[in-house]
Amino acid sequence: MSPKDVSPRDLLDRQLGRVTMYRLVTIVLGVLVVVMLAFTINGTFTGRFTVKSELVTLVVVLVATYASSRLLGLIWRVKTHGESAIITALLLWFIFTPSTDAADLAWIAGAGALANVSKYVLAWRGRHIFNPAAAGAFLVYAIQYAIGRDLPITASWWIGNKQLLAFVAVGAFLVLWRTRRLDIGVLFIVVAGVLVTLGLNHIGQPAPFKTMAYAYPIVFLAGFMLSEPLTLPPRRVQQLTVSLVTAVVFSYPIWVLLFTSSPPNLKVFAITPGVSLLVGNLVAFAFARRRGLSLELVSKRKLTPETHELKFRAKHGLGFAPGQYAELTVPHARADGRGVRRTFSISSPPHDDGQLTIAVRVPEKSSTYKKALLDLKPGQTVRGTGVGGDFILPKDAAVPLLLVAGGIGITPFLSQLRHHPERDAVLVYGVTGPEEISYADELAAFNVVIVSAVRPDHLPTTWRWIEAPFLSAEIIASAVPDLGKRRAYVSGPPAMVNAVRPGLAKRCAGIKTDYFTGY
Question: Which of 4, 43, 359, 475 is deepest in the core (most CB within 10 A)?
Answer without folding.
Answer: 359
